[in-house]
Amino acid sequence: MHGTLNHLLATDRIWMKRFTGTGDAPDRLDAIVHEAFTDLRAARVVEDRRIAAWIDGLDETALAGVIRYRRVSSREEFVQELMPALDHWFNHQTHHRGHAHMILTSLGKAAPELDLLFYQRESAANLERR
């Protein structure tokens, strides 16, 4: 669990560095960004806010654009359309959040609801409350 959650934070920071050119990004996909779960959780909240703010600021022109970046492991350079890169990134997050969910449920722990429909309903309800 610890490695999976650190991997998610590490890769989110790597992709945000690719997308925005800013922020700290580890040089390894298996980096342990934080040893303590409390620190990891706090960093996750900050990174999620950063991601949401950046996504909210994208317009049609930006979404139709490309990014240029170097791969962490090989330093190979890529030019990538933004939209497919975002698809990959969010699918990667979903994949590993599913791993974390499975770990919790296999240990008999209560796991958070991760269904997209649940999230959409919760988001709509939060908008209605405003």
> What is the tally of helical segments?
5
Instruction: Predict the CATH topology.
Output: Four Helix Bundle (Hemerythrin (Met), subunit A)
- Count of DSSP E strands? 2
CA-CA gap between termini: 35 Å
Strands of the widest sheet, in order across it, are 1-2
N-to-C series of helices and strands: HHHEEHH
Descriptive overview:
The chain has 130 residues and is mostly helical. It has a single domain (2-129), classed as Four Helix Bundle (Hemerythrin (Met), subunit A). The chain is 63% helix and 8% strand. It has 5 helices and 2 strands, in the order H-H-H-E-E-H-H. Strands 1-2 form a two-stranded antiparallel ribbon. Helix 1 runs parallel beside helix 2 and helix 1 packs antiparallel against helix 4 (82-106). The mean pLDDT is 91.
Helix-strand blueprint:
Blueprint: H1 2-20, H2 37-56, H3 60-63, E1 66-70, E2 77-81, H4 82-106, H5 116-129
Antiparallel strand pairs: 1-2
Helix pairs in contact: 1-2, 1-4
List the defining traits of the structure above.
Four Helix Bundle (Hemerythrin (Met), subunit A); 63% helix; two-stranded antiparallel ribbon; 130 residues
In short:
The protein has 130 residues and is mainly α. The protein has helices spanning 2-20, 37-56, 60-63, 82-106, 116-129; strands spanning 66-70, 77-81.
